[in-house]
Amino acid sequence: MHKSHRRALALLTMLCLTLSLALCAQALEPSGEPARRGIDVSEWQGSIDFARVRDAGIEIVYIRAGAGGDYADPDFRTNYENAKAAGLKIGFYHYVTARSSAEAEQQARYFVSLIGGTVPDCRLAMDFETFGSLSREQTNEIALVFLETVEQLTGKSTVVYTDAYNARAVWNDAVAERPLWVAQYGVDTPEDNGKWDSWVGFQYSDRGRVDGIRGNVDLDWFTDGILLGEQDEIPHTQHHILYRVRRGDTLWRIARRYGTTVEKLAELNHIADPNRIFVGQMLEIPSKSIVPVTYTVKRGDTLWGIARRYHTTVSQLAGINHIKNPNLIYVGQTIKI
């Protein structure tokens, strides 16, 4: 072989080796040996046989407690009690929809109120995925308020659940002080993000199959870094939700929606004239009055129209209902409001 050809081949080999090493360096390593198989579940999995889940080799289950400031997962308590009885290690997560620091604090308090009286084994997880028109700075501020409020109220450590893209592009160093539970599908190891140097949770599929569960379920690997040092009971807390008055609202309509009375709302919010509330006003509503609202899609409906009718947003409805394409809903579909 000609010398120049050998030199070119050597250079090419060195380049390939360098690129291979660089690609390896871009992989995010686990915080320890990822020896624990896990799943995360919500009402979407329906009735779960946790004994069969355990026998299938699953050790850890993360259970959704709720979403936003007023939605409790209807299967939360049942899932918790049955998973506990099966001897699984348990964590809880909350789907955050806050658009301000005040809403973040309220949603954190609501999360803590939902898990009161439980004994988790794993860090409490923040699931904050959709940001709407929030800036990066606002998003991080909301996340920090949520995390810090949960930590203060429970005395428990937290973990940040996020996908690989947001881990790299959205979260700042303050949020990254908490451990990472990262979602990235179709890879053996999640990519480096420049913020975290390791992960304690890796969600590698949203289409997994596990004995004891009908249909798909998220699959995870966890390290021991996901576990809490001590397992003690989350204290029960008193709680009110916050509601932002929107155009067309009346105190009577709000009271009816949340199963309370105009008199109670007026007294709690120091409203002298119940006929006078204004757009943007924040109202406290007793948490015992929370009644999950659902809507059945009819011919001609759009998610935008439903959001407008119920004084919410398309992004919030899409998030709560796990709707990937807001332009695709179907007649007969049940939408949680």
From TrEMBL:
Domain named LysM: residues: 241-285, 293-337
Source domain of life: Bacteria
Keywords: Glycosidase, Hydrolase, Signal
GO molecular function (one): lysozyme activity
Leader peptide range in chain numbering: 1-27
GO annotation terms (biological process): carbohydrate catabolic process; cell wall macromolecule catabolic process; peptidoglycan catabolic process
Acetylation found in the keyword field: no
PANTHER family the record matches: LYSOZYME
Membership in a protein family: Belongs to the glycosyl hydrolase 25 family.
The protein's name in its UniProt record: LysM peptidoglycan-binding domain-containing protein
